[in-house]
Amino acid sequence: MTRQVEFYFDFGSPYSYLAYKELPRVAQRTGAQIAWRPILLGGIFKATGNHSPAEIPAKGRWSRTDTARWSRRYGANLQQNPYFPINTLALMRAATGFQLRDEAAFHRYVDAIFAAMWEQQRNLNDPAEIAAVLAAAGFDPREVLSMIEDPAVKEALKQATEAAVARGVFGAPSFFVGDELFWGNDRLLFVEEALAG
């Protein structure tokens, strides 16, 4: 039986970006499949009383150093986004919509948005900038805008976020192997052990 790791992520989390870069290698080493779980981190924070590290000045400064360390460790190219924090509601709705409609497009979209946010330092608070990123990745921005306004897509993201909270998720990235929760890209060591065990 193929093992599975569920990956709960939000584009606004630099640690989600780091996990996105490393998790495929963990999956390859263990023969596991990744179940992608886009969620709205702001909704998770609101429901659980958690806060972004950016809201705590000392932790925010430390996180910038910490993410740079992890970026080097993973061979990633994380660049601090000067427009952070970014409201990811539309971005996460689009991820949900693509996942519901077209798996290949979903992965292409995830690649494009993570790169724009954490490698290219794009201002994804700006709809025109989002449209430019989408067009460069081969998407029709008008079609994506229509999709994120679809009530079914809105509801799917809402339900996914609520279901994550019900499972105990309080931040991103989070992972499940079976019913066991792991939080943070630095817990991928334990995710790998669980997948290999």
Textual characterization of the structure:
- One of its GO terms (molecular function) is isomerase activity.
- Keywords: Isomerase.
- With 197 residues, the protein is an alpha+beta fold.
- The chain has one domain: Glutaredoxin, CATH 3.40.30.
- The protein has nine helices and four strands; from the N terminus they run βαβαααααααββα.
- It has helices at residues 14-30, 41-48, 57-74, 89-101, 103-118, 127-136, 141-148, 151-167, 188-196, and strands at residues 4-9, 33-38, 174-177, 180-183.
- The protein has a four-stranded mixed sheet with strand order 2-1-3-4, sandwiched between helices.
- Strand 3 (174-177) and strand 4 (180-183) form a beta hairpin.
- Helix 4 runs antiparallel to helix 5 (103-118) and helix 4 crosses helix 8.
